[in-house]
Amino acid sequence: MRWALWVLVASLGAVMSESIGRAGDEPNYDESKVPSYELPDPLKSASGRTIISPEEWRRVRRPEILKLFTEQMYGRAPKRPEAVLFEESLIADNVLGGKGEFRNVRIWLLGRREGPAMDVLLVLPKKAPRPVPAFVAMNFRGNASTHPHPKIPLSRNWMRNDPRRGFVDHRMTEKARGVAASRWPYEQILDRGYAVATVYYGDVDPDFDDGFQNGIHPWFYRPGQRRPAPDEWGSIAAWAWGLSRIMDYLERQDRIDPKHVAVMGHSRLGKTALWAGATDSRFGIVISNNSGCGGAALSRRRFGETVRRINTSFPHWFCENFKKYNDREDAMPFDQHMLLALIAPRPVLVCSAEEDRWADPRGEFLSCLHADPVYRLLGTDGLGTKTMPPVHRPVLTTVGYHIRAGKHDVTALDWKVYCDFADRHWKRGGKSERRGGAAK
Ligand code: GCU
Questions:
Q1: Pairwise CA distance, residues 180 & 162, whole Å
Q2: Average pLDDT, stretch 50-70?
């Protein structure tokens, strides 16, 4: 009896200390509880030198920052394959009210037929003068989830289960066609004269922690290697690497203009889009949507998701070295404003949603603000404001920021803003052309 009582007390204690532990994990959503912090200066080199010219930025500071993010956060990815191998096929002509065409492009990721391939869905406007500008964006649920058309091939790769929406036994079924269509307003995008290239991110690396045994990683292991080294790529870097393989293909066709390609991504794929933009300057515009922690939001604010939370829930997203900064944000020699700065002087648009506090909208805006000095040093107009704009009042300067009402999601309104931003910076369209012209 006494023994039983002791077990009861001991296990109660364990439960309590666990719940106390968890209470400590409660995300902070109170602005007044954001700790005070000092951000590393993107314009001060590791040796303490102040960077005062674009030339010094390019020669000294940018490579330093890129190395930090590469080795400490996202991880080193392999070089691009020497060959580019792809196969195109028409899925359907005359779709989207006769305005568009769906094509499939299978790209072999290693540049040879052995090894993994990804299927890119191209959505092309029929009428626009070619080559057209395009958005490249990964999707979460397979290309066929982006539109209900019956001929878009169903992905056969691993997917997170969601039987109600047609994801069963980790596979996509017919029922899942079009389930994500609200995030992909293709007709509206085609009307604006843009094409879209989208791919299921799981074609590159399935999004679960299996110690990097599946997906692209093992194909690059050295003999005897079992998992990436502490400074080698996690899944986000792998997805970003996959986006660059789409660029390799785009440089070899003539429907889409490879000089006018914007990379866009939502949430974890927003983090991915930012890293792809930072590492591959072929992306002319970079757009993150609700990317949050590990994306556009400043880590030091510890508002909503924190470094420890993200590394615990998603141990495979970043490289192993990033775990050193769990609960040690102030020790990071970088913060996410410097990720945006790596994209400079190319236009970057950071998009938040008001109710998406987990992603820290204010922290996303502040990253833009603190990236601004680099953008200005490089001769652009930077971020055209010092105060966070209210909802639905996008700032479309070279560092753009947009916050809309509502939840963590991608909406038709968001796409309108992406197109406005691209029009402006690529000087397209009537009204926006004049606006873009005036700002430069
Ligand atoms: C989780 C995660 C975020 C991520 C999001 C998503 O909420 O904590 O960091 O952005 O998933 O990708 O939907």
A1: 13
A2: 98
Summarised one tens digit per residue, pLDDT across range 254-305 is 999 999 999 999 999 999 999 999 999 999 999 999 999 999 999 999 999 9
- CB atoms < 10 A from the CB of 44, how many? 12
CATH code where residue 285 lies = 3.40.50.1820
Provide the pLDDT confidence category of residue 128 given band limits of 50, 70 and 90.
Answer: confident
Q: Taking Cα atoms as reference points, which of 359, 347, 353, 360 lies closest to residue 403? A: 353
Residue-wise pLDDT for 197-255, tens only, equals 999 999 999 999 999 999 999 999 999 999 999 999 999 999 999 999 999 999 999 99
Say how many domains are in the chain. Answer: 1
Ligand 1 pocket residue status of 293, Cβ below 6 Å? yes
* Ligand 1 atom 12: residue of nearest CA: 268
pLDDT band, very low/low/confident/very high, at 25 (cuts 50, 70, 90): confident
User: Which residues partner with 120 through β-bridges?
Assistant: 105, 199
Atom 13 of ligand 1, nearest CA residue: 267
List Cβ neighbours of 359 (8 Å cut-off, separation of 6 or more): 267, 290, 291, 292, 293, 295, 297, 304, 305, 352, 353, 408
Question: Strand 195-200 and strand 132-139: pairing?
Answer: parallel
Taking the CA of residue 291 as reference, the ligand 1 atom at the shortest distance is: 10
Is 270 contained in some domain?
yes
> Which structural domain, as residue segments, surrounds residue 194?
2-425
Q: How far is the CA of 207 from the centre of ligand 1 (A)?
A: 12
Residue range 365-397, pLDDT digits in tens: 999 999 999 999 999 999 999 999 999 999 999
pLDDT single digits (tens) 411-438:
999 999 999 999 999 999 754 333 333 3
Q: Residue 143: CB within 6 Å of ligand 1? A: no
Does 256 map to a domain? yes
Pocket test for ligand 1, best of 309, 358, 364, 407 (most atoms within 8 A of CB): 358
Ligand 1 touching residue 289 (CB < 6 A): no
321 lines ligand 1 (CB under 6 A): no
- Kindly give the distance from the C-alpha atom of residue 410 to the centroid of ligand 1, in angstroms, as a whole number: 13
Q: Is the CB of 274 within 6 Å of ligand 1?
A: no
In a domain, residue 433? The reply is no
CB 134 within 8 A of CB 422: no
Looking at the domain assignment, is residue 435 inside a domain? no
Q: How far apart are CA 135 and CA 286, in angstroms?
A: 9
Q: How far does residue 314's CA lie from ligand 1's centre (Å)?
A: 9
C-alpha of residue 267 to centroid of ligand 1, in Å: 6
| Ligand 1 atom with minimal separation from the 271 CA | 10
